[in-house]
TrEMBL record:
Residues 54-139 form the Nucleoporin POM152 N-terminal transmembrane domain. One of its GO terms (biological process) is nuclear pore organization. Residues 26-37 have a biased composition (Polar residues). Residues 1-37 are annotated as: Disordered. It comes from Gomphillus americanus. This is Nucleoporin Pom152. Residues 1068-1148 form the Nucleoporin POM152 ninth Ig-like domain. One of its GO terms (molecular function) is structural constituent of nuclear pore. Residues 548-651, 870-960 form the Nucleoporin POM152 immunoglobulin-like domain. Residues 441-544, 752-835, 1153-1237 form the Nucleoporin POM152 Ig-like domain. GO terms for cellular component: nuclear pore transmembrane ring. Residues 190-299 form the Nucleoporin POM152 first Ig-like domain. Pfam families: Ig-like_POM152 (PF24312), Ig-like_Pom152_1 (PF24519), Ig-like_Pom152_9 (PF24527), Ig_Pom152 (PF23664), TMD_POM152 (PF24097). InterPro entries: Ig-like_POM152 (IPR056541), Ig-like_POM152_1st (IPR056542), Ig-like_POM152_9th (IPR056543), Ig_POM152 (IPR056544), Pom152 (IPR037701), TMD_POM152 (IPR056540).
């Protein structure tokens, strides 16, 4: 075999590489094309873009609009008047609205609502028809249609047990006729080997096979089998003796259970050899040969599959290159699969045939199992080797496995794989081949190429900058890599080309971070990379040029820097010429007499530069250049003789301000001070000018010995900008140096001042006290911020506050007289005007309130004020007097203790009063004790002042009495024959007794009630006796009009308040609508009612009392079960339970008859020709019984039976037995007892239908 056999969905044959392209072409070639032109999409796009409102939402909005229009239409329908003009107008209005809606919706092009023209026309004419029916009020029998439709989906009736029952469940009760008897006439005895064509195989785990021999209507004593050898086709006869047959039959009887011994049995014969088995002869106990079915059964070796193991280590992209070895009877099917890393298992099924295998011959041999062929070579076991070559294109662990193997006879061996493939586990472990696929290593140079050479110092070893791609899937797996590179030395002036020998180097990299070490100049080219398992790939760039640049050198020359005035040297100019790789760094040592030497250095970015050494201090200097560095070489010493230079420096005179920035401000009349730095040899003479207002004043300072001099100007007595300029400086040598140093000073024109401001034309203020800060106004001049120092007269401790605004204020907490002592602004101190330096602060008196005693306000024992008690809901108030500055504000709380419930604190009450007298409204909404506590008061000056010393106002609110009927709304009914005064109407009263009660009694035919006054009621429960004179036939109403208690509180009832009714009525009647006494289950029992609906019917059923209601003049119930139904009494709407019409109407409900054949089950009896079988019937009901049964053909599966004959019979007892000898299916189709009858399709006749009772 050249390749692996595969299904279409299996793995592709190796080593093809066009698998993805072909698969993609196959997938896309089978799918329908869904592309549309852009123009068609634009034409069919909805008017409202789907990006703005999606299609489901648009359909929902249309549906909501349609529901709203329908609701509007129904509203117009119910408000329609009988005028034809109005009806026509509404019909025309809805004709226009419906047409606009139905013809406008498709124009919106909403998906699923783009109706065709015919559909829109159909809907339009349907709406026109509906509008015509509604607007012109055309009568349609909706109620009849609704009732019929309701009965179709909900067909239930009230039964005697007062629950709804489905009549169909009673009329079509399949449990009344049960059972079926099937009689089969068996043929003569027979035997067959393995009729169900089970497959059998033998291997190491299955050492034997049990061949089933089916026997029917016979007891064999001898059985002969023929075995045809699979390899030699030699026949062998196997004889099963009578003793072995008995053992096999005993085992079969035990497995079959308690069945007649003549029925069929399965005898199991154990074989341990492979071959083709055939039933040759079967002899029964009468020594007659039993008829046998000619068929063969093959017992073959069980199929087997394995994997030939190969090397487990592979490289990415390699072929799997292993083979499956399968053994069994061809054609074979093997299911194998793979699992990559931690992914799911996948499997594929292969059909395998040997190369010399003839498929048509094998198919013919399988058919010959029934044709008694003698050649068994087709069933021989074959060994087939199947190569598997797949590309391992993913790094990691690949696991190939065999899931199952099946031969031509469906013998299947499952291997243990777990549950990933849904295959049942067996004892045998699955053959597995595991590969560890390694990544291919790659290498390249990083940061070095022929264009970007690697520069290193001569003799210095460096790492070759390679980048190695990691090849291991797990970091814990450390692989060694072998790197091969080629070295080509660099040609020098003294070398020839033939001397440049190319060397090949090979090194081992133990880690991924390992690098080869190189030092020789030349070209290094990577030629190969590999690890322990795989050869790798060299990527670009792969060549690196290593260069050794020349060592850096420097040539130094110097010249002095002379001064133009003094003539002496002030510095040294150094010229540098360099060789090497920039940038350079040169270090030198500076030595000065009397000082420690110091090492200095500087960086040079080019090959030539010039430095100037100009010390600021005089003295002898020595410069020694010691070392040089460039980009490649570091700290190379300088050994030339011309590397040491000396100079004697005398610096020139110079002067400059320490702070060259202008000084912002200066106070008038004060001098300005500056620090001046001097250089050169002292003593110095400094000249400077002061320029102001266009005038220049020269100044000179001589004999300055310190290098840092503090320059103080003369007093600056004029305001404005002053410029101080250094003009020249002269040192010891007498060399005068001209200067241009300048600073500027702004001099204030005046000094700051401070004074108190005025409030309402005076420096005093009258304010409310209470610890709040008070602001005293100020008037300030100068530049912010200011610091004001003040004192409270009578105190010695001054206070300083920072003020940021010229019209600011100081804040104080105490009243008194305040005086300003000092003022200073941002720069300068100021002056105080004594006339405006003082301010007076005084406080206003606090507000108060008073409550005076009066005839309605008395002082209580606990110091509180007690207000006269009032009734609930009465209006009352308390008067309060205020002292202070109006308007006033007060806050108080109400503490309430209701008569019923717990205490509670009401919300804070706030009131504003414009005058000195006010009143507060008393709370009388609920009965109880109220306390009014004042929290705070305030006036125009004070926001809040505590009132802890004021008394509390108390008041008692009495509850109003109430009267109500104990059974409000109850109707007291009396029969016409009974007295109306034997009953009382209970009334419940609340309040403080004694009570005065006023009632009203009104007859339904009169508009004026009769007033009844009842004084001096001492109890809270009163039984009112209706005067007999006030009652007559009909309806009376009794209502409560008014009640008053001992506290003088009164409550009047509302015009439509609680009331009770008293009815005097006649008695209702009931009579049966059918004359018969006996009914069957499923019948309807009906009665006619007379009186005022609704009616209440009282009856008993099965000894239980029940009550039923009827809103019409007919009372009907479905008889759902047997029993005695007796109507006891009836009452209607006008009567009461105590005023019932007594009756004794009896109806008897009988059970439906039932019958069972074969205990209500389907039983099957086999008899021989001429034999008999018994039909056993069991009845239920009231004898005698008349039943009808049929005999039909024994139909096979999927076929209908045909009725052969129908018979009827009678039984006086509850059981009956009949004997039959004809083959067929017997079943009962109808049953009838003394009162009722039932058929297999439902109840046909019932006792309630007037049938004649059976009698024999």
């Amino acid at each position: 075999m050249n390749g692996t056999p595969r299904l279409k969905s299996a793995y592709p044959p190796s080593p093809k590489t066009d698998r993805k392209k072909a698969t993609n072409r196959a997938i896309y070639s089978n799918g329908p094309s869904i592309a549309k032109s852009s123009s068609t999409e634009a034409e069919n796009a909805p008017i409202i873009p789907l990006s703005l409102v999606d299609a489901p939402s648009q359909r929902a909005y249309v549906f909501g609009l349609y529901v709203a229009l329908t609701a509007w239409k129904l509203y117009d329908y119910y408000g329609l008047i009988s005028d034809e003009t109005e009806s026509l107008w509404l019909w025309l209005k809805w004709l226009l609205i419906d047409s606009a809606f139905l013809f406008g919706i498709p124009e919106l092009r909403i998906p699923w609502l783009q109706w065709s023209s015919s559909a829109v026309a159909f809907l339009f004419f349907g709406h026109v028809l509906g509008n015509t029916i509604l607007m012109f009020r055309i009568p349609i029998p909706f109620e009849a249609w609704l009732l019929a439709f309701t009965r179709m989906i909900y067909d239930r009736e009230l039964a005697i047990s007062e629950r709804r029952v489905k009549p169909g469940s009673l009329l079509h009760n399949s449990s009344l006729i049960l059972g079926k008897q099937i009689v089969n006439i068996l043929p003569e005895g027979s035997a067959v080997l393995n009729p169900e064509k089970h497959s059998f195989c033998i291997d190491n785990s299955r050492l034997s096979a049990e061949l089933p021999i089916y026997i029917n209507q016979t007891t064999p004593k001898l059985i002969e089998l023929i075995r045809i050898d699979l390899d030699t086709n030699v026949n062998e006869t196997l004889t099963i003796s009578g003793k072995e047959v008995k053992k096999m039959k005993a085992r079969a009887d035990k497995e079959a259970g308690k069945q007649p011994t003549t029925e069929s049995r399965v005898l199991k014969y154990q074989v341990k050899q492979t071959g083709l088995y055939r039933l040759s002869k079967v002899v029964d106990e009468s020594n007659l040969e039993v008829q046998r079915v000619l068929a063969d059964t093959a017992v073959v070796p069980c199929p087997f599959a394995s994997i030939r193991s190969v090397d487990v280590n592979k490289c990415k992209g390699d072929l799997s290159n292993f083979s499956l070895e399968v053994q069994g009877t061809p054609p074979l099917k093997v299911m194998y699969g793979k699992k990559v890393n931690h992914g799911k298992r996948s499997a594929v099924s292969l059909t395998i045939n040997p190369e010399e295998f003839d498929h048509e011959e094998s198919l013919h041999a399988l058919v010959s199992l029934r044709n008694q062929g003698s050649d068994a070579s087709w069933a021989r076991s074959h060994h087939v080797k199947v190569p598997i070559n797949e590309s391992l294109d993913l790094g990691g662990v690949w696991e190939y496995f065999v899931a199952e193997v099946k031969d031509a006879l469906n013998n299947t061996v499952h291997y243990d794989l777990g549950d990933d493939l849904g295959i049942k586990s067996r004892r045998q472990a699955a053959p597995i081949q595991t590969f560890r696929v390694h990544e291919i290593p790659t290498v390249k140079l990083n940061g070095c190429s022929q264009q970007q050479p690697l520069k290193r110092a001569k003799g210095q070893t460096t790492d070759l900058p390679i980048w190695l791609n990691p090849t291991n899937q797990k970091r814990s797996e450390k692989l060694k890599h072998i790197l091969t590179y080629m070295f080509t030395p660099q040609l020098t002036e003294d070398m020839k080309e033939e001397d440049a020998i190319v060397n090949i180097e090979t090194i081992t990299l133990n880690t991924e971070d390992a690098r080869p070490h190189v030092s020789k100049p030349g070209t290094y080219s990577l030629t190969g990379i590999s690890n322990e398992y795989c050869a790798g790939e060299v990527l670009e760039p792969s060549s690196c040029l290593l260069l050794n640049p020349p060592e850096p050198e420097v040539s130094i020359s110097t010249e002095p820097i002379p001064h133009q005035c003094a003539g002496n040297s002030v510095g040294l100019r150094v010229n540098l010429d360099l060789v090497g790789t920039p940038p350079f760094h040169i270090s030198w040592i500076e030595r000065r007499e009397g000082f420690k030497p110091r090492e200095l250095g500087d960086t040079v970015d080019s090959l030539r530069t010039q430095w100037e050494f100009k010390p600021t201090e005089p003295g002898n200097y020595r410069y020694e250049f010691i070392k040089i560095s460039d980009k490649v070489y570091h700290d190379l010493p300088l050994r030339d003789q011309d590397r040491v230079f000396e100079q004697s420096v005398r610096p020139i005179a110079w002067a400059h301000f320490a702070d060259r920035h202008s000084k912002d401000l200066a106070c008038i009349g004060q001098s300005a001070s500056f620090n001046v730095y001097l250089s050169g040899e002292g003593p110095w003479t400094l000249e400077y000018d002061i320029v102001h207002g266009g005038k220049r004043k020269k100044n000179k300072v001589a004999d300055i010995s310190d290098s840092v001099y503090r320059l103080d100007t003369p007093a600056l007595v004029k305001g404005g900008e002053h410029s101080i300029t250094l003009t020249s400086v002269t040192d010891e040598s007498g060399c005068k140096i001209f200067l241009e140093q300048e600073v500027r000073v702004n001099v204030r024109h005046e000094s700051p001042t401070a004074a108190f401001g005025m409030v309402d034309g005076q420096r005093s203020m009258l304010v409310a006290g209470g610890g709040k800060k008070q602001l005293l106004p100020l008037k300030l001049t100068g530049e912010s911020p200011w610091h004001v120092t003040y004192v409270r007269v009578g105190e010695d401790k001054p206070v300083t506050q920072k003020i940021n605004q010229a019209n600011g204020a100081i804040d104080v907490l105490q009243e008194g007289t305040y005086e300003i002592k000092e003022i200073r602004d941002k720069v300068c101190p100021g002056s105080i005007d004594l006339r405006t330096s003082k301010f007076d602060l005084n406080y206003l008196p606090r507000p108060s309130l008073h409550i005076f005693e009066s005839s309605t306000m008395k002082k209580g024992p606990n110091g509180s004020l007690v207000k006269n008690s009032v009734c609930e809901g009465d209006q009352d108030s308390a008067e309060i007097t205020f002292n202070g500055q109006p308007p006033f504000h007060m806050e108080y709380k109400v503490h309430a203790k209701p008569e019923h419930g717990s205490k509670f604190l009401g919300p804070l009450q706030k009131e504003d009063v414009a005058s000195h007298v006010a009143s507060i409204r008393m709370d009388t909404s609920q009965p109880g004790t109220y306390q009014y506590s004042f929290i705070t008061i305030g006036d125009h000056a004070y926001d809040s002042v505590g009132t802890h010393n004021f008394p509390v106002i108390e008041q008692q609110v009495h509850t109003r009495p109430t009267a109500k009927f104990s059974d409000t709304g109850r109707t007291y009914n009396y029969c016409k024959e009974q007295s109306a005064t034997t009953d009382v109407i209970p009334i419940s009263l609340t309040g403080t007794p004694p009570f005065i009660l006023e009632l009203g009694i009104r007859h339904h035919a009169s508009n004026m009630p009769e007033i009844v006054n009842i004084p001096n009621i001492q109890s809270r429960n009163y039984d009112f006796v209706i005067p007999q004179r006030a009652l007559s036939l009909g309806t009376h109403t009794v209502s409560i009009r008014k009640i008053r208690d001992a506290n003088g509180c009164e409550r009047a009832s509302e015009p439509r308040g609680p009331l009770v009714r008293v009815n005097v009525v006649d008695m209702p009647t009931i009579s049966p609508m059918e004359p018969q006494l006996d009914y069957c289950v499923g019948d309807r029992i009906s009665f006619a009612l007379a009186g005022t609906p609704p009616f209440s019917v009282y009856y008993t059923f099965e000894g239980a009392e029940r009550k039923a209601s009827s809103s019409g003049t007919t009372f009907r119930r479905l008889a759902e079960k047997p029993g005695e139904f007796v109507v006891k009494a009836i009452s209607d709407k006008a009567s009461t339970d105590s005023c019932r019409a007594r009756h004794e109407l009896t109806k008897i409900v009988h059970p439906l008859p039932s019958v069972q054949i074969s205990k209500g089950k389907v039983s099957e009896v086999d008899i021989h020709e001429g034999g008999e079988a018994e039909l056993y019937f069991e009845f239920g009901g009231t004898p005698p019984f008349e039943f009808t049964y049929t005999r039909s053909t024994n139909a096979g599966k999927g076929k209908r039976s045909v009725i052969l004959e129908t018979k009827s019979d009678i039984s006086e007892q509850y059981t009956k037995t009949l004997r039959v000898s004809d083959e067929g299916t017997y079943e009962v189709v109808s049953i009838r007892d003394r009162y009722c009858s039932v058929t297999a399709h439902g109840i046909q006749n019932r006792g309630g239908g007037g049938q004649n009772l059976l009698g024999f």
